[in-house]
Amino acid sequence: MLRTMARSSAPARITIAFGAEGALVDAAVSQTVAAIRGQEPGAQKVTVVASNPDGGALVRDAGAPTLFGDSTILVVTGADSASDEVDEALRELIAMESDTVWLIVTHPGVVKGKNLMDALRKAGAIQINCAALKRGKETLAYLSRAVSSHKRHMAPDALTVLYDAIGQDLRLLTAAVSQLMSDVETDPITADDVRSYFGGVAEVSGFTISDAVWDRRSVDAFRSLRWAMQSSDNVAVATVSALAAGLRSIVRVAGVGAGASEQDVAREAGVPPWKVEMLRRQWAGWSGDQRRLAASAVALADADGALKGGVLEGSSLDPEQKRMALERLIIQASGRGA
User: How many whole angstroms separate alpha carbon 49 and alpha carbon 83?
Assistant: First the structure.
């Protein structure tokens, strides 16, 4: 699940989890600790925050030889914020070349702390790259690997439904995959399985409503909206967000041109290839009615402000007014309103 440099089967004495994606950093640390304990079952883990005023002393204490030669896994987090004392203590530790201390250092990949990272690399550190994943294809590939790690399968459109529902938060995506793997017995897991399992999640309902709106299936959109309102208290903002995302995708696909292949459209528009046909169909339904499409975009912007608390002071809506505003938006955006 991690993008790593080539490494031997045995864990390195020094490991750097390098990058700002918290979920990947967490996974890098936990997997490295597990690998070390596979070799040294009794190794004790000590975590030191690099910005801690007492960090230098804590690093030295963790790295000091023990009476019985017990192994220690020292995890130093946020090395970009390391004080001079922590920097010095870490350099002393790597110079010792202790065979009882395993060092794991996390760094968000910024310039600050570069000299310390260079010193660790020079000392033989293995680096695990934990940079933030790009939206779209790269994140979907991560999800697919997460599913494979459970020795299970998900249909491509099911992965996309899950991604649309949860968003770019890898921690939440990873947790959602684990939940699905644990609770859904069918294999492969389908898009309907995902929608059913997360039926009470407002974002999932939002994208179901969005698909119906941009397909100009106003009755289905309205029915889905009413059902969603009965099963969740957080429908309004999530629905507007899903509608806006759907509209952006339609416009991007329309801008690529009808002669391009699905793969080219997917690459240029930043959408999964399987979704191109649906987005082209949606655009075909709107291309002759672009004034109403533009009006829907304006209505979306107005609704976004109104449902989030109002644009002007004193213009916030009560729950019933928000419900009515959302229903009006669905009718107008689906192209069936006045």
Answer: 10
CA-to-CA dists, residue 260 to 178, 249, 301, angstroms: 37, 16, 31
CA-nearest of 16, 18, 56, 20 to 32 is 16
Q: Which residue has the tokens 């967490």?
A: 26
pTM, to two decimals: 0.59
Task: Please give the Cα distance from 43 to 66 (Å, whole number).
Answer: 12
Other C-beta atoms lying within 10 Å of the C-beta of residue 167: 14
Domain boundaries 3-129, corresponding CATH code: 3.40.50.300
Q: Does domain 202-333 have CATH number 1.10.3720.10?
A: no
**What is the structure's pLDDT at 6?**
39
d(CA 184, CA 194): 9
Looking at this protein, which amino acid is placed at residue 165? A
Domain assignments of the chain as residue spans, ordered by start: 3-129, 137-197, 202-333
Contacts with 267 (C-beta within 8 Å, 6 or more apart), sequence order: none
Q: What is the pLDDT of residues 303-312, one digit of tens each?
A: 877 776 654 4
Instruction: Give SS3 for 99.
Output: coil
The rounded distance, in Å, linking the Cα atoms of 55 and 89 is 9
